[in-house]
């Protein structure tokens, strides 16, 4: 019997009972980092505020921060920011978000760049935004119906989410302004 066969396989029902902050991917539990550093929190507020301004009058979409995204009975993740459209579930995100933003920390980098990248790509998330808070840079990926295609790196630019029920943009110059050494 291999080492992997001895691992516990958890479900959403188990996950709901846990204390603290966790994610569940393919039945494997991942602890989340302690409370994010101030820069992480600040960038989350700046980006979610900009998105909220765009989606404020959109009756079909909403901006959510740190909300459970239940993909399967054994897979629940918690994106930093998600824009969800036409999702009637009140308990968690139940369908692929239009936009997911993850702010990269050293502890979560591999999970965000590899594991969640693959997961979100498979689920058909339209836009995946990775924020590198130390580099003051964002990488944006857009799903083409089969896979993610890199749209580019953004630091001072504004990115427009063109395939959205409601128009939306993120102005990265504004997002990173406070942290630039002028």
UniProtKB/TrEMBL annotation:
InterPro entries: Nuclease_put_TT1808 (IPR012296), Restrct_endonuc-II-like (IPR011335), Uma2 (IPR008538). CDD domains: DUF820-like (cd06260). Residues 13-144 form the Putative restriction endonuclease domain. It comes from the Bacteria. Transmembrane segments: none annotated. SUPFAM superfamilies: Restriction endonuclease-like (SSF52980). This is Uncharacterized protein conserved in cyanobacteria.
